[in-house]
Amino acid sequence: MNNIVERLTRLDYAIVVAYLIILIVIGYRASFSKKKKTGESLFLASKSLDWPSIGFNMWGTNVGPSMLLAFASIGYSTGIVAVNFDWYAFVFLLLLAMVFAPRYLAANVSTMPEFMGNRYGDSTRNILAWYALIKILISWLSLGLFAGGFLVRQILGIPMWESVIVLVLFAGLFAFAGGLKAIAKVNVFQMILLICVSLTLTIMGVSKVGGLSKVFHSVPGHYWNLIRPASDPKYPWYAILLGYPVAAVAFFCTDQAMVQSVLGARNLEQGQLGVNFIGWLKILSLPLFILTGILCFILFPHLKDPAEAYMTMVTHLFPPGMNGLVIVVLIAVLVGTIGSSLNSLSTVFTMDVYAKKINPNATNEQIIKVGRMTVVAGCLFAIMMALAIDSIKGLNLFDVFQSVLGFIAPPLSVVFLLTVFWQRTTRKAVNAILSFGSAFSLGVGVLYLWVLTPDKYHFWPHYLLLSFFIFLFLLIAAVVISLFDPSPVVMDKEAHATHDLPKPTKKVWRAWILLIITMLALYVIFNGH
């Protein structure tokens, strides 16, 4: 497939230009309307969110265009097996709702480093703040930029390095003009538009193939199986069963971007119902995202790269005008993600590291200056990281995303699970896992992805199993360090008291039991072939 820009009509270009002008005007107006109430801050939304807002916010954070492209690519090449990465999540969303959320809300914290700092002291808080910076840089900023560069490369047919620089400059321009605030305001609209576009694409694809029955019988039988046999080289059942939970605990239960919505809940019940709601929304990933890839496999079976599945469907099925709209919405949401990541990076570094440790007496001007320098440094790092991710061999787009997350996750999963479930965990153990354990986990990731790549060196286990083995090793290390610590500093027993935590209401239990029954039924239905 040549670049998509060759297929665009004048109407597409007109829509792209009109959309960009509207965004720039909104951004310009937002930047010159600063004399609004200062109370309109991010944190005032705190303690006011109800369950639909929490569910949609978490889902919007989780399902960006990057995952949309990745899901379509894996649907094209292997069928519905990737739905496990969304449907199996209900177990860990339940863990967040029933185990983690009550503790977070009872501790009345606004960040994850603050929660751990309350238990183990400032040293743990500082290490976790640095790890949060690494996580933002890699899992949000670099992966987001890589997905965006991949998309721009498909659309314009230009090299990856040009694509990522274009995106970074675009995101920087909006940040400078105050447009990021505007993009944040229209992001919910853009998510809804993305859902409508994907649903339309699915309906048109099913119609073109000749109905659902034809779709079902036009692909190999294993395309409809959620659970693959142990002999399956790509996604054996045991790799998903053991490996996915490591990333899922870190992502759903400890990631600031995901947990933030729950921390802003009006009360615990609304928080627990909101987390339940995202579990229901995740069911939609099959008809909205995976099915697009399967339909593309039926209609266009000879794609050179499965990662082009989504855009191939867009350009071949949509009428003139809609192509331009889809492309613009995808890029705008990606720019919003990149901009938000830059903003988070700047905030964490200037407030948690610079103002707290390096220069406690910093003036407002100095903090702003350091914040801007952090944004520039973050941009340069993300460009290099996105190009490095693009050079990964032997993995498809979906596997790249999951494997990178799989190497970031183990230390976080270990320390948060032990903090919640084992009171004997000591500060020394937590700090060792967050520092040395993180270096070990990320080091193995660098070896796997860039040095001794799995396409050439076949001694590696599946990347999901590798993530599980790292988790197991760090878990055992943390337990041993805690048990043999000569001067253990354990968490404050009062802060950890579980007998005072509120119990879930009947409404919460009903919602979760219904979701659990539904998910188990779906697993039975999609494994009966």
UniProtKB/TrEMBL annotation:
The chain crosses the membrane at residues 13-32, 53-75, 87-106, 127-152, 158-180, 192-215, 235-254, 275-303, 323-349, 370-389, 401-422, 429-451, 463-484, 508-526. One of its GO terms (molecular function) is D-glucose:sodium symporter activity. Pfam families: SSF. The keyword Transmembrane applies. Keywords: Membrane, Transmembrane, Transmembrane helix. PROSITE patterns: NA_SOLUT_SYMP_3. GO terms for cellular component: plasma membrane. InterPro entries: Na/solute_symporter. It comes from the Bacteria. Belongs to the sodium:solute symporter (SSF) (TC 2.A.21) family. PANTHER family: SODIUM_GLUCOSE COTRANSPORTER 4, SOLUTE CARRIER FAMILY 5. This is Sodium/solute symporter. It comes from Pinibacter aurantiacus. The lineage of its organism: Bacteria, Pseudomonadati, Bacteroidota, Chitinophagia, Chitinophagales.
